[in-house]
Structure formats: structure tokens, C-alpha cells
Amino acid sequence: MTSPDLNQAADMVRAAGRLAVLTGAGISAESGLATFRGAGGLWAGQRIEDVATPQAFARDPQQVWRFYNARRAGLATVRPNPGHVALVALEDRLGPSFTLVTQNVDGLHQAAGSRNVLEIHGSIRRVRCTACHARSERPTETLSEMPTCTTCQGLLRPDVVWFGEMLPLDIWARAELAVQDCDCFLVIGTSAFVYPAAGLIMTARDQGARVIEINLDETDASRRVALSLRGPSGVILPELLRLL
Ligand code: BV8
Ligand code: ZN
């Protein structure tokens, strides 16, 4: 089933010399992972903004680790969906002129085979020591509620960017550059609510890129994009790829 919008989107992507993509929790929804605001922004009965902050971790690290251990446990059983796989095919086709920026911390893009993924909000598959700052990949093991560093016994934290924290500057700089340079910007499965990630949409539009939104619903960004494709990214992305 192809709509005139899908054909128009395919024309924009085909004509793009450089393509950038921003994904949010929506692209992982068809893999079975809950989104942040789909459930009214509640995670196990608490607002993400209340548990995903350094203050919450200082106040009650055990509660924050319970929240993250539950999400890590969810990762053990989920697989990438056709939306993630379609982005791998786009990267294969476009090579260095393709940049994938993700707000997601679930690692599903890499699990699908994406090679160059800019994780601007970090990853819940990685932990970081609050004392010696050593990072380690701990993808699917079950951590205790107060996991400690094997080197210095410091308290570990999830290696994600919490609200009120700076994004990893090198990764953010590469994301901004790619969006400033792109001819076409695909914005997939994000409510465009969290900054500075959502600001990339205006950056792309202001430099003259064609911005295409793929989302189930209308979002804060919808009125600012060139084209909105309404529907699940796991269906739309493979269809878009077939038209290229
Ligand atoms: C920063 C990691 C500079 C953790 C996340 C006051 C003080 C300080 C800062 C602020 C402030 N007020 C505002 C801010 C900025 C703040 C912010 O934006 N707050 C929000 C609440 C307004 N941002 C920050 O703090 C950032 N840092 O600004 O640093 C600074 C530093 C110090 C002091 C001042 C400034 C850091 C933000 C990063 C937060 N970390 N994640 C974790 O995941 O545990 S954000 C979190 O939300 C996730 O990364 C998530 O990806 C992200 C955004 O959500 P979405 O991905 O968009 O998901 P959502 O559920 O919202 O939407 C899903 C969409 O998919 C929906 O539209 C739905 O319709 C659609 N969908 C569903 N199914 C499908 C689908 N679409 C297609 N197909 C489907 N099948
Ligand atoms: Zn340590």
C-alpha cells in the first residue's frame, strides 16, 4: 500500500545527498518496549523526569536502580523490529552520507546491525562508576540494587544522560554537524518534547533540509515539518525503502 505522501517522501530521500535520522522511543514500540509518554510518561507508576535525574539518584539510588534494572530486564527479551532493520538497509545504501542519531538507550539499533549510531542519551546496556568513572558494557546481566565497581568498589550508575545533565559533548557535536549538513532529516517515533534533541528539528529546517516526520500521532514538531507520515515506523520504513 503506497500513499502519495509515501511517494513524495521517497522522492525527498532519493534526492538527498546527505540523510540524517533522529529516532525516539516510538521506533522501539513495535519491539514491545514502552514509550515514555505513551503511558502518560509513567514508568512503573513514576514520572521519568522524577527517577531519571541526578537528584533522584543521590536521594535514593536503590529506587533508581530498581527502575533501571526493570528496563534492563525488558531488553533481554526484545528484538529489533522492521523499522530498525530498514534503517540498517538505508545505512548500507548511503554509507558515510547517512547519520543515525538516537535518543533511545535500548541498543536496538546496534542489535539490528546499525554501525554508526550516535547515542545522545547514552545506553542502559552500559554502566559508569560514580567514583573512578570507568565505563563497562553490562548488557543483559541482572545487577544488584546497589551495584559497585569491580575496580574501586564505587557505586555504579546507568551510563545514560539524566534530566538536567549535559549530553556527551563529542557525540552531540557530531549529531549537530550531521543535521546542519543534511539535505533530508527523518524524525521517527519521537514526541519532540525533550531538548536539546528536539531542537535538531529546527536546526535541520532552518538550514533548508527537507524534514519528514514518521509518527503514529501529531507531535510538537508536526506543524514544522515538510511532510508527516502517520503510522507505525515498523510498517512505513520498510515501505519507504521499497520505493527507493
Ligand atoms: C540538558 C535517558 C543542558 C534516560 C532521556 C530545567 C532544568 C534543566 C534542564 C531542563 C529544564 N527544563 C527543560 C530542560 C531540558 C530537559 C528537557 O528537555 N526536559 C523535558 C522534560 C522538557 N533536557 C535535559 O535536561 C537534557 N539536558 O538540557 O542539558 C543543561 C544541563 C544542566 C542544566 C540545564 C541544562 C537531558 C535530556 C535527556 C534526558 N534523558 N533518556 C532514560 O531513558 O532513562 S530522555 C528520554 O525521553 C528518552 O531518551 C526518550 O527517548 C526521550 C524523549 O522521548 P521520546 O523518545 O520522544 O519518547 P516519547 O514516549 O516521548 O514519544 C514516543 C513517540 O513515538 C510518540 O510521539 C508516539 O506517538 C510515537 N510512537 C509510538 N509508537 C510508534 C510511534 N511512532 C512511530 N511508530 C510507532 N510504532
Ligand atoms: Zn570505580
How does the SSE layout of this entry go?
Layout: H1 4-15, E1 19-23, H2 26-29, E2 42-43, E3 46-47, H3 48-51, H4 54-59, H5 61-75, H6 82-94, E4 98-102, H7 108-112, E5 117-119, E6 122-129, E7 135-137, E8 156-160, H8 169-181, E9 184-188, H9 199-206, E10 210-215, E11 227-230, H10 233-243
Parallel strand pairs: 1-4, 1-9, 4-5, 9-10, 10-11
Antiparallel strand pairs: 2-3, 6-7, 6-8
Helix pairs in contact: 1-10, 6-10, 8-9
The structure holds ligand BV8 and zinc ion.
Structural commentary:
Helix 6 (82-94) packs parallel to helix 10 (233-243) and helix 8 (169-181) runs parallel beside helix 9 (199-206). With 244 residues, this protein is an alpha/beta fold. The protein contains 10 helices and 11 strands. The two termini are 15 Å apart. Strand 2 (42-43) and strand 3 form a beta hairpin. Bound molecules: ligand BV8 and zinc ion (ZN). Ligand BV8 binds next to helix 2, strand 10 and helix 10.
